[in-house]
Amino acid sequence: MAALASWTPRGTADAADVSQRILARLLRSRDLSAAALSRRVEEGLPFRIFAELAECLGLTHEAFGALLRLSPSTLYRRRRGGRFAFAESDRLWRYLHLYAAAADVLEGSDAAADWLRSELPALSGGTPLEAARNAPGARAAEELLTRLEFGVFA
To answer: 37 or 7: which carries more pLDDT confidence?
Structure first.
């Protein structure tokens, strides 16, 4: 009974803030408005976000770069230049958003990284990271997270 008395529903501010805290930490910004995020993606996200997210996901730079469809030479140029181009930033944002959403639903960064790297029957045996290589696949992974959050397993 004590555990039941301390339980709070997922809709509380603390639970909802998990993804916001992750985004704020990785972006190093408190302004997470749609306009500010859109502007940052259009300006090009800094390479540091790529490096930190790769570490959070437990991926090498080369493996994460391959998911973003970046050749090793392009990845090297982005590292030296410090910033990604718009289209690359848009793809990087897709992974950042998916990671934050998974951490929110699964209640932790480690659980999120494990889930994102897991082969799932609902994604035809692929991983959410592989699915997120394109917008429809990312949407399928997000829908799967929503189903997990609300207990819809069929």
So the answer is: 37
The token duo for 121 is 């029957």
Residue 31 falls inside a structural domain = yes
Domain that holds residue 138: 18-150
Residues in CB range of 96: below 8 A, 6 or more apart: 23, 26, 27, 49, 53
6 belongs to a structural domain: no
Mean pLDDT of the chain: 90
- Residues of the chain with pLDDT > 90, as a percent, come to 83
Is-contact 138 94, C-beta < 8 A? yes
Angle among Cα 106, 7, 143 to the nearest 5 degrees reads 30
pLDDT band at 33 (very low <50, low <70, confident <90, very high): very high
Is residue 74 classed exposed, middle or buried when 0-12, 13-18 and 19+ CB atoms within 10 A define those classes? middle
pTM to 2 decimal places: 0.86
The radius of gyration of the chain from alpha carbons, rounded to an integer in Å, stands at 16
